[in-house]
């Protein structure tokens, strides 16, 4: 068992946006009893003792936590590299300056499209202008900036514009991530899954931009595993190098594992060290012993670790099956059918979406 390197600290699931692709759990009401400042302080200290080096402060919208500056300062005092993952709503200049003083190392701002109306429509609230202004503040204060865009049927045709926008604000890195279908995104999959033609066009644009912007801006493109032959090596293997603490103190190997039928582990009742080492939620799929065929005898079993446990559960109801995104999976037909539907001629614009609800209190 290795030490975890990264902690995803989901400080709150409250969020001023209402994106239909959100991967937060559907049962948001179960997470209203958030850890307090003192409890987060202990979590960070225990994470540091465990070997964690990077702390991603996320949500929901982490800026809704009034104690965010204190949490950042605590993480900084422990020597953790801190990354704020934010919509930027609430990142005023004065808040940004406080976070800079507290030692925040990196900022990642999400945007929904390169054109204001489209971005605001997908976010479910007017936000584009404030996001672009916040990006300017981030660069002025000397932070490295990552611009993150979750790609789906309604914005993937805007990739060229998104890259231009990222370049114009001086982003150091842009992350173009095809939607992962968990939480609200799973509920809206039929409306979000792009067509093959859309993906192929986007990939041509990304390749050309990478060539043009080499040495100036890193472009990360997270492919859609629904269209691949093999699944993604999710989290680098279950409970291998990452852990997530949810707003109410539950500990998970990844942010999408809440629905899996595994016993709960919580920092309210146990230490992070014991949870990482011994709790069933961590040990259930660690390593390769749990694997069924065809993974068990597959030469890629330590390349992709059988794919994503959460996706296997979502699609088959059994987290211990081979990820159906793999073409060798006996359940691959489930993915093939979704892809066929996405290429069936409809534009997707007529497929209803249920965005996650906004909630700031
Ligand atoms: Fe990966 Fe399992 Fe598919 Fe092999 S069979 S490629 S290990 S998911
Ligand atoms: Fe949970 Fe892939 S998202 S294992």
TrEMBL record:
<dbReference type="GO" id="GO:0018189">
    <property type="term" value="P:pyrroloquinoline quinone biosynthetic process"/>
</dbReference>
<dbReference type="InterPro" id="IPR017200">
    <property type="entry name" value="PqqE-like"/>
</dbReference>
<comment type="function">
    <text>Catalyzes the cross-linking of a glutamate residue and a tyrosine residue in the PqqA protein as part of the biosynthesis of pyrroloquinoline quinone (PQQ).</text>
</comment>
<comment type="pathway">
    <text>Cofactor biosynthesis; pyrroloquinoline quinone biosynthesis.</text>
</comment>
<comment type="similarity">
    <text>Belongs to the radical SAM superfamily. PqqE family.</text>
</comment>
<keyword id="KW-0479">Metal-binding</keyword>
<dbReference type="GO" id="GO:0051539">
    <property type="term" value="F:4 iron, 4 sulfur cluster binding"/>
</dbReference>
<feature type="region of interest" description="Disordered">
    <location>
        <begin position="342"/>
        <end position="361"/>
    </location>
</feature>
<keyword id="KW-0949">S-adenosyl-L-methionine</keyword>
<dbReference type="InterPro" id="IPR006638">
    <property type="entry name" value="Elp3/MiaA/NifB-like_rSAM"/>
</dbReference>
<dbReference type="GO" id="GO:0016491">
    <property type="term" value="F:oxidoreductase activity"/>
</dbReference>
<dbReference type="GO" id="GO:0005506">
    <property type="term" value="F:iron ion binding"/>
</dbReference>
<feature type="binding site">
    <location>
        <position position="15"/>
    </location>
    <ligand>
        <name>[4Fe-4S] cluster</name>
    </ligand>
</feature>
<feature type="binding site">
    <location>
        <position position="22"/>
    </location>
    <ligand>
        <name>[4Fe-4S] cluster</name>
    </ligand>
</feature>
<dbReference type="Pfam" id="PF13186">
    <property type="entry name" value="SPASM"/>
</dbReference>
<keyword id="KW-0884">PQQ biosynthesis</keyword>
<feature type="binding site">
    <location>
        <position position="19"/>
    </location>
    <ligand>
        <name>[4Fe-4S] cluster</name>
    </ligand>
</feature>
<dbReference type="InterPro" id="IPR013785">
    <property type="entry name" value="Aldolase_TIM"/>
</dbReference>
<feature type="domain" description="Radical SAM core">
    <location>
        <begin position="1"/>
        <end position="216"/>
    </location>
</feature>
<dbReference type="GO" id="GO:1904047">
    <property type="term" value="F:S-adenosyl-L-methionine binding"/>
</dbReference>
<keyword id="KW-0408">Iron</keyword>
<keyword id="KW-0411">Iron-sulfur</keyword>
<keyword id="KW-0560">Oxidoreductase</keyword>
<dbReference type="Pfam" id="PF04055">
    <property type="entry name" value="Radical_SAM"/>
</dbReference>
<dbReference type="InterPro" id="IPR050377">
    <property type="entry name" value="Radical_SAM_PqqE_MftC-like"/>
</dbReference>
<keyword id="KW-0004">4Fe-4S</keyword>
<dbReference type="InterPro" id="IPR023885">
    <property type="entry name" value="4Fe4S-binding_SPASM_dom"/>
</dbReference>
<dbReference type="InterPro" id="IPR058240">
    <property type="entry name" value="rSAM_sf"/>
</dbReference>
<dbReference type="InterPro" id="IPR007197">
    <property type="entry name" value="rSAM"/>
</dbReference>
<dbReference type="GO" id="GO:0009975">
    <property type="term" value="F:cyclase activity"/>
</dbReference>
<dbReference type="InterPro" id="IPR011843">
    <property type="entry name" value="PQQ_synth_PqqE_bac"/>
</dbReference>
<comment type="subunit">
    <text>Interacts with PqqD. The interaction is necessary for activity of PqqE.</text>
</comment>
<protein>
    <recommendedName>
        <fullName>PqqA peptide cyclase</fullName>
        <ecNumber>1.21.98.4</ecNumber>
    </recommendedName>
</protein>
């Amino acid at each position: 068992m290795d030490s975890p390197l990264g902690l995803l600290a989901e400080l709150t699931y409250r969020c001023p946006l209402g994106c239909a692709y959100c991967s937060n759990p559907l049962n948001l009401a179960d997470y209203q009893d958030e850890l307090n400042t003192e409890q987060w302080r202990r979590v960070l200290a225990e994470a540091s003792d465990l070997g964690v080096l990077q702390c991603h402060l996320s949500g929901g919208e982490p800026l809704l936590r009034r104690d965010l500056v204190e949490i950042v300062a605590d993480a900084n005092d422990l020597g953790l590299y801190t990354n704020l993952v934010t919509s930027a709503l609430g990142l005023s200049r004065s808040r940004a300056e406080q976070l800079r003083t507290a030692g925040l190392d990196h900022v990642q701002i999400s945007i929904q499209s390169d054109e204001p109306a489209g971005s605001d429509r997908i976010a479910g609230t007017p936000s584009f202008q404030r996001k672009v202004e916040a990006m300017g503040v981030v660069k002025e204060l000397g932070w490295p900036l990552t611009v993150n865009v979750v790609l789906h049927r309604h914005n993937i045709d805007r990739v060229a514009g998104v890259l231009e926008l990222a370049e114009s604000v001086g982003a150091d890195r842009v992350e173009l991530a095809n939607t992962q279908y968990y939480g609200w995104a799973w509920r809206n999959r039929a409306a979000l899954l792009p067509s093959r033609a859309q993906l192929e066009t986007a990939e041509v644009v990304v390749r050309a931009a990478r060539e043009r912007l080499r040495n100036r801006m890193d472009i990360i493109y997270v492919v859609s595993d629904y269209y691949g032959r093999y699944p993604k090596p999710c989290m680098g293997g279950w409970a291998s190098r990452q852990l997530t603490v949810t707003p109410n103190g539950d500990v998970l190997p990844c942010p999408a594992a809440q629905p899996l039928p595994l016993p709960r582990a919580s920092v309210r009742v146990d230490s992070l060290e014991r949870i990482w080492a011994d709790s069933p939620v961590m040990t259930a799929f660690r390593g390769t012993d749990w694997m069924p065929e065809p993974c068990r005898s597959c030469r890629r079993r330590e390349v992709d670790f059988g794919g994503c446990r959460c996706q296997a559960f979502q699609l088959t109801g059994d987290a211990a099956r081979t990820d159906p995104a793999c073409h060798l999976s006996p359940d691959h037909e489930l993915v093939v059918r979704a892809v066929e539907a996405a290429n069936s001629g409809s534009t997707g614009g007529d497929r209803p979406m249920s965005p996650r609800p906004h909630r700031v209190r």
